[in-house]
Amino acid sequence: MSQKVNPTWTLLALAISAFAIGSTEFISVGLMPMLVSSFHIDLAQAGLTVSVYALGIMVGAPVMTLLTGRLNRHRLMMLIMGLFIVGNLLAAVAPTFNVLLLGRIIAALAHGIFMTVASVIAADVVAPEKRASAIAVMFTGLTVATVTGVPLGTMIGQLGGWRWSFIFISGIGVLGLLADYWLIPRNLPLPTKATARGIIRVLTNPQLLLALLVTALGYGGTFVAYTYLSPLLEQSMGWSASAVVVILVVYGLMVALGNTLGGRWANQRPLVALFKMFVGLLVTLLVLAVTAHSHWLGLLTVLVMGIFAFMNVPGLQLYIVQLAEIHTPQDITMASALNISAFNVGIALGSGIGGQVTTQFGLAWTPVFGALMVAVSLILLAGLIWLARPVENELPEDCED
What percent of the chain is helix, strand and coil (3-state, nearest 5)? Predict the structure, then answer.
């Protein structure tokens, strides 16, 4: 690159943008009771703010990757953050619930493409041997958002109304846009052009397709209960709205711990590690179904769920890349984008099922149906382990370390 850049500052800019992106994804989990009251809807309808957002990412990741593949990376990041800000401002001023959902979809389209582009930029601005670390630094923005952004947005909503939560996130988006403008190089190399045939190649490969299904069902199982975490804590366990804010902060810390542990455990044998993680999640969800009406035991179980909830993310993302390197090496970027879509298929499916469960059976039943999703993913994962055995020795050495 002819332009001299400081990788540390570039990664900081990406982390700020990732913080904004991460904050908006789950902000409505903390705002759920306020949205129900403001728009006179039920919990199942309010849950659409999570599932519709997830669907927007699901579609946005591969489609936006196809549409923007040849755009200058700096210019593309400006467009992404601009789209993100517009979506959240529209949600903030939404006169009706449908307009709020439209704002969520617009922001989600930005989210889907951001995850792919930011990862590539992070890898491009450092030496090859530091790429994994650079991507990890960028993703700290998402982790910090889980720990602080969502609870802070919830607190702002409780103090000034839910609309101010989306204004707050828009403000963080503006900071991210400015940081990206000044700190992201303007002459980054363009990646290999993604094609629609690449999507077909990935989806028609049995192991890649099975891995995507494991991602959707295993990751999504948590969201049957997590989407309705605030009302579960308040209505079933008897915690106050102010206490829920504090609980969400601690929950975020548990998520951060789980992410760190999950990344370390999945480095060597990701499939075996993932199987153990999903078993832990399955057991925790079943225990939550029993403790859902207990003030303290319910809280303890929720925090344990936080450890297992997103622990599987590094392993799932790592393994899809490893498989793509073997089976579709020309489509590694698209495989990664489709896995991001699979994560959000899981969120949409999980939150959608959770909405129906709360309507038909009640909040306390959401962990049971979440456990069923995770159980199916374990069956599929067992099949993937069986299929993977003949090619384990073909994995590149740097993927096994």
Answer: 85, 0, 15
